[in-house]
Amino acid sequence: MSLRFAGRVAIVTGAASGIGAAIAERLAADGADVVVADLQAGPASAVATALAGRHGVRTLGIGCDVGDEAQVSACVAATMTTFGRLDIIVNNAGLMTFKTLAQWTADDWLAVLRVDLLGADFFTQQAFLHMGEAGGVIINIASVHAVETSANMAPYAAAKAAMVSLTRSTAIEGRDRNIRANAVLPGAIDTPMLWRNPNLRSGVETLDRRDVGQPEDVAAAVAFLASDDAKFITGTTLAVDGGRLAKL
Ligand SMILES: NC(=O)c1ccc[n+]([C@@H]2O[C@H](COP(=O)([O-])OP(=O)(O)OC[C@H]3O[C@@H](n4cnc5c(N)ncnc54)[C@H](O)[C@@H]3O)[C@@H](O)[C@H]2O)c1
Q: Ligand 1 centroid vs 133 CA: distance in angstroms?
């Protein structure tokens, strides 16, 4: 039986760590050639090399700041030069910072929006420029903070909500191009980002054991949305949160 992503090429951003690394692993295990794009070039290359060794697919590790339009174009150009096609983009790289509403500066806001929103938009534009006639899939890793949030993280919550809106716009404009776009809303996932969260340390946000999922839980949802099993699913959101959003 052939693997479901055999012959397809995926870019995963922020893939040197946490959820992005698990998504890259899952897509490679299912046969995709994978571009591991991350701010940290060294770890991106190391993850790419390890994936190729474990799964026998072709990989490329690239240093790329998703908030820098020229670096995003260069990343996609390198993908096209190396693999000659682009089928799946997972906009996973994210930045989360914490201040009160009285403390945020315009530069703080712009720094978060640049990575969490514009980064996804830059890659979306590249998808429309480079995905072929068969189209492709874009998956935006937003957050439960797109729909409910906590104190001290207004730019992050606003960027993730806007990312869901970008997903809808992409789905609408993508219909004629066979480009599907969906957003995944992870809840609390066991990664370095979760445990750096000062709201957890201060008690502003509380979690119980059942609220914490694994990066592989998000990767499984991404693999489904990227697959042909989801061919009629576009413009929507999928929460991967163990039911956290459902409770009062
Ligand atoms: N961990 C959670 O609980 C959780 C919950 C909801 C949403 N998310 C989202 O999931 C995504 C991944 O988070 P994670 O928990 O795996 O974080 P992480 O800190 O473990 O990994 C993030 C990766 O993104 C990279 N990165 C950061 N800024 C970048 C940039 N400008 N360009 C390219 N790469 C960049 C980092 O180098 C790192 O490798 C983020 O978008 C985050 O907002 C995480």
A: 31
CA 113 to chain centre: 15
- In the chain, what are the domain boundaries? 9-243
CB of residue 59 inside a 6 A radius of ligand 1: no
- State the pLDDT at residue 1: 65
Q: Is 155 in the pocket of ligand 1 (CB under 6 A)?
A: no
Structure tokens at 102: 């009285």
* Pairwise pLDDT comparison (201 vs 49), residue with the higher score: 49
Of all protein residues, whose CA lies closest to atom 20 belonging to ligand 1? 18
Q: What is the pLDDT of residues 200-240, one digit of tens each?
A: 989 999 999 999 999 999 999 999 999 999 999 999 999 99
* Architecture field, domain 9-243: 3-Layer(aba) Sandwich (3.40)
222 lines ligand 1 (CB under 6 A): no
Cα(128) to centroid of ligand 1, in Å? Answer: 24
* The total number of residues written for the chain in this structure: 248
Q: Can you give the pTM of this predicted structure? A: 0.98
Q: What is the DSSP letter of 177?
A: G
